[in-house]
Structures are given as C-alpha cells and as structure tokens.
C-alpha cells in the first residue's frame, strides 16, 4: 500500500461505527459535508447590513469571509494527518462543540476583531469536521460504490450555496445579521447529537504522527502532475463562485438598490448553478476526463466574453444573474469531476488526501477571489465579468498547456 508504515496500529478505545448504523452515519456525514458552504453563504445577504451596523467598510466585512476560507484551508493540511493518527470520531465531536460556542460568541459581540477571531476558530473546527466526513466515505465504501458516494458528495456539498443564502436573505429581512449565527449554532447542536448517536470511529488503522511520514506521503501525492494541477483547478473553480459571494450582495443591494431577499435569491441561483454543474459532472462520470473539462472551460470562457461584451448594451439584474449562472454551471462541472478524482486517487491516505485537497482548494479560493476583488473592485456586470475572465484564463492554461500530455 502507498504510504504504508509498519507502525500502523489497529483502532482501539474509541466507539467504532456499528454496521447497523452505517446508513444513518452516512446520512449524518452528508448533512455535515455542506457545513463549510453553509458557514460562508448564509450571511452573504447580511454583509451590507453588517457593514452598516458595525460601522466598517465593505472590505472589512468581506475579510470575515476570507479569514474563514484561509483558516479552513490551512487547517486541513494539519487535520488530515491528525484524523489519520487519532481517528475521526472524537475530533469531530470536539470540533462541533467548539463550533457551536464560536457562533454564540459572534452573536454576543459588536467588535469586528472578535468576529475575525471566531471566524478563524470556525475555519479550524470546520476543517476537522469536513475532512473527517470526506474520509468517512473512503473508509466505509469501496469500488464503484465509493466513486458514487464521492461524486454525490460534491452535489450534496453544493446544497449549502443553494439553501443558505436563500434562508439568509429572509433571516436578514425579518430579524438581523446575528440571526444567521444563531441558526449555525442550532445546526451545530443538532449535528453534535446525531453524530454522537449514530456515528463512530471508521479509521481502518491509525497512522503514526511523524513529520517524515507526512512529508513522504505528501510528496507521493504531489508527484502526480494531474493531482497537483487538480488542486489549482478546484481552487480556481470555487474561487470563481466566491467572487460573486464577495461582491454579489453589494452589487445587488447597494448599486441596483434591491433588498437583501433579492440578494439571497441571486446567491441561491449561483448555488443552483453549482449544483447543476455537479449533476452534469456525475452524469458524465464515465466520459474521458480531460476532454470534457476542456470543453466545459471553453464554454465558460465564451459565456464570460459574452457577459463583458453585452454589458455595453444591456446590464441589469437579470443579465447579471443569467451570465453568472452559466459561468457557475461550467465551473461546478469541472470541480465535481476533479475533486472526486482527488479524493479517490490515494485511498490508503484518505485523511491526508482529503486534507491536502480541501486545504489547497480553499487557500487558492481565498487568495485568488480576494485578489481579483481587490484588483477589479467589481461593481457592475462588466467588472464582474473581467474578474471571471482572469479565473477562466488561468484554468485554460492548466487544462490546455500544463496537462496536454496527461492521460486520465
């Protein structure tokens, strides 16, 4: 086995997953997979109101999102090794408990610096939870069943960008921005109870926590060119959607003068686009890998160029949403195919592969999306299109140039 170490130990002590609870535990895992998307998207319609209430700039509020993405990404480089060495179950329970407390701290403060700190805590705890749950499917299932669940995982994950901003828009309309974090705390409590009741330890064998072993295993994964560039592809795909997350509510509410509910519907459409891309990815899972990704990227670039060119003739809420929707379908398709490949590529190092894949994805997402927003300051359909174009061209370079000789 790749990365096998003679010091591996069979799991002892922790409550093991009961076979009769396998389906229930699978359902709980699917409910926790969208947690990262839920945390990022539920308060997107509230961001302009947070800026007003806390008397801070748009950029200062956008930083709450970027700090979560960065901490979530960095944490996964460590959490993958830790859950392979100490197991998934107990670390998930502790992380859920801390996650609940962090949300309660946020609703009780008016200091943005405290919110920054809690968002970093949430990034770390969510890193433990989501990496453990991604590894769950590799631990418990094999063969075609594993491929099915890994592909389904991306689709389920995309449910958060669909539901979260939709709910967040109404929470802001009828309550306040703090209500989003009350909902997150409640969700965390529910998941903590379900995890305790139905789940259990699934790690097949504890890996020794040795720096040399971790470096060795990382080097094995990164030697694969397709895996290596796939990390960049996934980060750029999700970074494309995050550009809209960072600026979409400000464009719709501040520049177009619509309500937070409308901003929530706009974000919901982006989530539906991502889900549609994921469903298309699952439907074409047996098609040749790189050609279908290159075709999707070509369509993506065509849509973006039309988005920019048409802005001189017509630019309103409907054209903004329509063009962004089509672009997000394309990146959702690419992400679904490539992320499933990354997670299943090294099953003997499921936790480490999950941590590296997720960590690199969110770091690239955070830095690329925040950099594009910082450079272009998108406040219109055309400027948003230029931001999308940068991401699409980078993806094209990877797919057309760097991977032209690969066979996947």
Automatic annotation (TrEMBL):
GO cellular component: plasma membrane
Ranges annotated as spanning the membrane: 24-44, 59-79, 91-108, 114-137, 149-168, 180-198, 229-252, 258-281, 293-314, 320-343, 355-377, 383-403
Keywords, ordered alphabetically: Membrane, Transmembrane, Transmembrane helix, Transport
Organism name: Dinghuibacter silviterrae
Localization: Membrane
Start and end residues of each Major facilitator superfamily (MFS) profile domain: 25-408
Name used for this protein in its record: Multidrug resistance protein
Membrane topology: Multi-pass membrane protein
GO terms of biological process kind: xenobiotic detoxification by transmembrane export across the plasma membrane
PANTHER family recorded: MAJOR FACILITATOR SUPERFAMILY (PTHR23502), POLYAMINE TRANSPORTER 2-RELATED (PTHR23502:SF132)
Highest rank taxon of the organism: Bacteria
GO molecular function: sodium:proton antiporter activity
